[in-house]
Amino acid sequence: PSCKTTKTPRNSKITNASTCSDTRLMEALRVWRASFNLLGFAASRAAAASAGRAHRFHIRCCSPAAAATTKPPQDRRRRSASSSSTSDRDSIRAIRLKKVEELRGKGYEPYAYKWDRTHTTKELQERYTHLENGEVCTEASVSIAGRIVARRAFGKLVFMTIRDDSGTIQLYCEKDSLTEEQFEQLKAFIDVGDILGASGSIKKTEKGELSVYVSFFEILTKSLLPLPDKYHGLTDVDKRYRQRYIDMIANPEVADVFRTRAKVVSEIRKTMESFGFIEVETPVLQGEAGGAEARPFITHHNSLQRDLYLRIATELHLKRMLVGGLEKVYEIGRIFRNEGISTRHNPEFTTIEMYEAYSDYESMMNLAEEIVTRCAMATTGKLKIDYQGTEISLERPWRRETMHRLVEEATGVDFNSFGDVESAKNAAKGLLGFKTESSENTSLQACSSVGHVLNEVFETVVESTLVQPTFVLDYPVEISPLAKPHRRYAGLTERFELFVCGREIGNAFSELTDPIDQRSRFENQIKQHNAKRAAMDKVKLDESKGDDEYSYEVSLDEDFLTSLEYGMPPASGMGLGIDRLVMLLTNSASIRDVIAFPVLKLQQ
Fold this sequence. Notes:
Elements: H1 21-54, H2 64-69, H3 73-105, H4 121-127, E1 136-154, E2 157-164, E3 167-174, H5 180-189, E4 195-204, E5 210-221, H6 237-242, H7 244-250, H8 253-274, E6 278-279, E7 285-286, E8 298-301, E9 306-310, H9 315-324, E10 328-336, E11 348-357, H10 361-379, E12 384-387, E13 390-393, E14 399-402, H11 403-411, H12 421-432, H13 439-445, H14 450-462, E15 470-473, E16 495-500, E17 503-510, H15 515-537, H16 558-566, E18 571-577, H17 578-586
Parallel strand pairs: 3-5, 6-10, 14-15
Antiparallel strand pairs: 1-2, 1-4, 2-3, 4-5, 7-9, 8-9, 10-11, 11-18, 12-13, 15-16, 16-17, 17-18
Helix pairs in contact: 8-10, 8-17, 9-16, 11-14, 12-14, 15-16
Keywords: Aminoacyl-tRNA synthetase, ATP-binding, Ligase, Metal-binding, Nucleotide-binding, Protein biosynthesis
GO molecular function, one term: lysine-tRNA ligase activity
Pfam family, one: tRNA-synt_2
């Protein structure tokens, strides 16, 4: 549109005084509290002086128990500050509730049904960036909506910053361009945090700030609670996770993480579809928790009068789809494991599992590289990325090395040389330096094979050193119950795990299709689980630790074994952790940073 140039009149009488009623009342409250505290302090000093004149020597005695319960001054100050903050919050809420009543009394509804927008803030910033300072584009008619995140009042002029999903822009509200009723409403009823709709023309101020020159506005949602402090933001990490909505308002960059996450999931789907895979859905509630070794969540179905498990993997049902005739399938879904919480673990997390008939684990290595590099290019535009100060190169091909070789490189010990498990355990104790009574040593003692001992050493010594993308190949058969035996090396399987930054990102193998071998593996897995459970029962655990990680039952999935007896084609499969991939691509230190609403401890 054509733009007519006009200059903003300068008003030398404009003063830097806020007209916000919240601010005035809160200032009065603070002054009242301060004067009250001063009076109390003066009275206590006078009382102390009087007591000092009456008793030259004042000895105070208290028992150790009483002394222990006395709160240090900093605790009292912290409690007092928290109490004051809560009181301020309640006061602001009361003020704003009053405003809601007054607005309705004047015939305005502070919780609107809709607002017709013509542009986003980003679109306006891009379209009108060419305007000169002081220029007004009177031909432009725009309408925007968003949350007010800043407000400054100067007599007959009010500036506000409005934020929507795409960015921010300034609202230039001049008394002469609004009705008297609207301008008074602007000064008396609008607070930071309110969601506003505004329409008008476009101007660039004398200082070069692109603005909507407001001719009409409407309160779309009246905010009752104050936003976090403008300068300090929301810094309480626990509160950020518990109240993610506040975190996203106070720290707009947090929303970028979730936008990136959405791009990653979208790019994964595009990649899978480009290779001819179809997306399917499998049950979350299952009769047996199979496909992995993990403690499940248990629930109860009242109508069926039976216990069910939240799935710990999607694997076994996806393989049933291969038996049924689908040759390339995948599922992106939530997985639930009733285990510990850390920067790498959340009880519910998202994975993609994929299965391809007539392929082996070499195919899955190539597909893993394809998925991760495509996601990196879609989100960062490059294959060399920074993660917590370390440069990670995703350029292909990635390193491929066997577990035995990596352990030997790190320790100098070749575990292929051990003929019995006890010799392997003794070597591992020397390498790991476990104390006899430690829980780690108990876990080592519960190992029933050389393969289990090798895995313990790998997880403790090697895993954290795998910073650049690495495929760890050929795991022992004892710890890989669903993988096909290695076609060249006895005692190993055709399995790999993908590690980046010391974290497992993916797990894959050439799938076991022999139903008799599969049944035998499952039965051995149950025996091993029960042996570990018995070993842990002998150890006195701290009450604060609760049940140990093996205190659950493992059962055979008879229906899956039946499906294999009908015949499953040779296939490979892989699971990739989407949360950890997003952590890598967004430079996030904790898994809680990439899950919008992570599971947390109960708030005391």
